[in-house]
């Protein structure tokens, strides 16, 4: 089985290089090796030249605040490129594996959303990601759209690493405490993807949209506290005192993009249909911290 992996050097793309290696022959590309998602013509030529049975798209425009002022770039990469991949997958019978986000939801309420919940993005990033999802479902191609949240990895940039850096530099941090979600490891997501794509190739009825997040829930503030206290316990030179990691409401942290307050997502569908288990967010975060500290 030939697998085309796009966005090979992102947090998720890097872990997918490892997880997909045992599933098939992986052709892993980035924007500098024929797979620039902003260049539709060359992207299509690359997909046709590789002729994969599975396309795994880990590339995306993920700069949430910047997207508010770079709408065109975000839309080309997050919406138009996935649409093109889907049409090509439909034409050739390939399976398309794609990733989406909690930011497609408006974050109202306080209950976990399932896959049928109404999409109502608050940001350009969320809107363009939802357009990408919709195009894939509308194309009629076999697909796995995995909606995830708050992704971190040992390699790449993420919130946990930002908090570690700031905790070494500053004596006070202010972190939002009323946005609730689940930090999800790129390693977990990559392993899930490998299992799920094998199962979906064997049973096309598994095609669909799935919520794929780690177990449990937390706020950005409690997540930051967890990361900082873990680092302190491992002897890292942390400047901020524990009581100086302050919990603030979203209204006290203005940003260009509006983010959802409730990012809780139910993974019942994934667990039932694939028989897979989602470990708690702390298990993955602690493992990542052990690795980088
Ligand atoms: N990060 C998160 O918190 C979350 C991510 N997701 C989704 O998960 C998926 C993976 O995200 P993650 O790995 O964390 O993101 P990263 O930002 O770590 O990686 C994104 C990758 O996409 C690449 N990319 C950007 N623009 C282009 C382009 N025009 N052509 C080709 N490649 C491009 C980047 O390459 P380069 O380095 O060259 O810019 C980078 O390697 C995405 O679909 C994202 O929307 C969902 C929820 C949360
Ligand atoms: C740096 C910082 C951030 N924050 C807040 C801002 C934001 O609400 C939250 C997380 O900050 P980030 O910059 O990591 O947020 P963001 O880049 O929006 O993270 C999102 O990325 C995209 C790609 C997704 O798909 C989402 O699931 C989510 O992970 O923490 C603070 O409260 N204090 C701080 O000092
Ligand atoms: Mg970010």
TrEMBL record:
InterPro entries: dTDP_dehydrorham_reduct, NAD(P)-bd_dom_sf, RmlD-like-bd. Keywords: NADP, Oxidoreductase. The keyword Protein biosynthesis does not apply. Binds 1 Mg(2+) ion per monomer. Residues 1-292 form the RmlD-like substrate binding domain. Its EC number is 1.1.1.133. Pathway: Carbohydrate biosynthesis; dTDP-L-rhamnose biosynthesis. Pfam families: RmlD_sub_bind (PF04321). It comes from the Bacteria. It catalyses: dTDP-beta-L-rhamnose + NADP(+) = dTDP-4-dehydro-beta-L-rhamnose + NADPH + H(+). Its cofactor is Mg(2+). It is an enzyme of class 1 (oxidoreductase). GO terms for molecular function: dTDP-4-dehydrorhamnose reductase activity. Transmembrane segments: none annotated. Belongs to the dTDP-4-dehydrorhamnose reductase family. PANTHER family: DTDP-4-DEHYDRORHAMNOSE REDUCTASE, METHIONINE ADENOSYLTRANSFERASE 2 SUBUNIT BETA. Catalyzes the reduction of dTDP-6-deoxy-L-lyxo-4-hexulose to yield dTDP-L-rhamnose. This is dTDP-4-dehydrorhamnose reductase.
């Amino acid at each position: 089985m030939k697998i085309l992996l796009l966005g090979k050097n992102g947090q998720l793309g890097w872990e997918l290089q490892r997880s997909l290696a045992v599933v098939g022959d992986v052709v892993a590309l980035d924007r500098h090796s024929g797979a620039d998602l902003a260049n539709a013509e060359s992207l299509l030529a690359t997909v046709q030249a590789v002729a994969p049975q599975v396309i795994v798209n880990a590339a995306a425009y993920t700069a949430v605040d910047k997207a508010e002022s770079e709408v065109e770039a975000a839309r080309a990469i997050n919406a138009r490129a996935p649409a093109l991949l889907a049409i090509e997958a439909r034409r050739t019978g390939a399976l398309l594996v794609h990733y989406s986000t909690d930011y497609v939801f408006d974050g109202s309420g306080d209950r976990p959303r399932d896959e049928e919940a109404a999409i109502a993005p608050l940001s350009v990033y969320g809107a363009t990601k939802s357009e990408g999802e919709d195009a894939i479902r509308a194309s009629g191609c076999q697909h796995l759209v995995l909606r995830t949240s708050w992704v971190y990895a040992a390699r790449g940039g993420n919130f946990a690493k930002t908090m570690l850096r700031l905790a070494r530099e500053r004596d006070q941090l202010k972190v939002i405490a009323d946005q609730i979600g689940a930090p999800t490891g790129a390693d977990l997501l990559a392993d899930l993807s490998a299992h799920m794509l094998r199962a979906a190739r064997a049973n096309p009825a598994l095609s669909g949209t799935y919520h794929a997040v780690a177990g449990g829930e937390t706020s950005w503030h409690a997540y930051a506290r967890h990361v900082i206290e873990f680092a302190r316990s491992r002897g890292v030179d942390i400047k901020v005192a524990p009581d100086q990691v302050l919990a603030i409401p979203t209204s006290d942290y203005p940003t260009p993009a509006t983010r959802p307050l409730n990012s809780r997502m139910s993974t019942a569908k994934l667990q039932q249909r694939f028989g897979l288990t989602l470990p708690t967010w702390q298990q993955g975060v602690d493992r990542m911290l052990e690795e980088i500290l």
